[in-house]
Specification:
Elements: E1 2-3, H1 11-21, H2 26-35, E2 43-47, E3 56-57, H3 59-65, H4 72-78, E4 88-92, E5 97-103, H5 117-134, H6 147-160, E6 166-174, H7 185-198, E7 210-216
Parallel strand pairs: 5-6, 6-7
Antiparallel strand pairs: 1-3, 2-4, 4-5
Helix pairs in contact: 3-4, 5-6
Amino acid sequence: MRVPQSIGEKGSLKWVQKMLAQSPNALETAVRTELAISPNSTIDWTSPRADDRHAEYRDADFLEKLGLERFADDLRGFWPTRGPQWDALGLASDGKVILVEAKAHVNEMTSSCDAGERSREIIDQSLQLAKEHYGAEESADWASGYYQYANRLAHLDFLRQRGVDAHLVFIYVLNDRDMRGPSSAAGWADVIDDCYTKLGLKNDHSIDGVHSIFIDVA
């Protein structure tokens, strides 16, 4: 699904669009450093793009934007329609696939699954599979509290289990005064720690392919 966006006026929508419109931009610089992408490698940010109405992508269309449409049938069995809508998608020339989820304030971290019964069955099965692969505690509830974080982890696992060098990058915005967001990485620490605790994950936040980047927009 392709979802055109208006020009962002606040929050993470604003900052992702604004950063990717600049050259060089803080997002790409931080991603290159975190993922150890060589200066000789390029990154094609396939979304959002001004010439594509700043569209964001989900379901099989997000795979197509990354050249991974061969997994579209697998994804349909893995997740119901209206799955995660990615804030940004990038493809590095060294083969790394970049999935971006951006947050401008701590309240954006929390959400719960409200899918219907049939969709919920599929989601629960896929979340359970991801929990096992990540070594999460069996009793952890991935559908409540930090569901958005969990379903992004599940989609990362979906790709990596198929041999894709996929990376899930969480962008945490600092000094978003309009949204009254945290002014330092320490301001995000409690909610990120709580997220990992509730999801039953390692408290050192060490998951292959998952990256946390803090970008100051002041």
